[in-house]
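Milestone 3.1: sequence recovery, worked example.
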């Protein structure tokens, strides 16, 4: 049995976009920027941002669409979706004909990390609930 999980913590790069599959299943997509900082062999501090395209399904898709906004902090746990031809990031052609690639994750869990002052709290959450326990997350 093979199993993999990707865990990302970052900020939404744009507001979520929800659509429906032909069978009526909700699907929400959003981008997450993750900062990566390291020191090169020459001692130079390098800062870069890695972008991930996240897809959430079902009830979780609806909640993400209703409560997440550009700039908010999230933690995403899910599976990396690979290009079937290369086994790496999804490769595609831009409208201008140039090649591009994207890292895509199918979310299993999305946790809201922004403070309550920065985000509207989903219905059913109360001030006293321990949000570190996944049983309290409404999806």
């Amino acid at each position: 049995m093979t199993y993999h999980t990707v865990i990302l913590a970052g900020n939404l790069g744009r507001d979520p976009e929800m659509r429906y599959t032909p069978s009526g299943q909700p699907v929400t997509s959003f981008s997450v920027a993750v900062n990566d900082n390291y020191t090169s062999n020459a001692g130079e501090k390098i800062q870069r941002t890695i972008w991930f395209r996240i897809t959430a399904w079902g009830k979780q898709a609806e909640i993400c669409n209703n409560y997440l906004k550009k700039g908010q902090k999230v933690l995403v746990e899910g599976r990396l979706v690979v290009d079937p031809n290369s086994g790496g990031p999804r490769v595609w052609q831009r409208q201008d004909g140039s090649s591009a690639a994207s890292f895509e994750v199918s979310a299993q869990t999305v946790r809201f990390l922004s403070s309550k002052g920065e985000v509207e709290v989903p219905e059913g959450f109360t001030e006293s609930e321990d949000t570190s326990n996944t049983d309290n997350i409404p999806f």
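The chain has a mean pLDDT of 82. Residues 65 and 114 are 15 Å apart (CA to CA).
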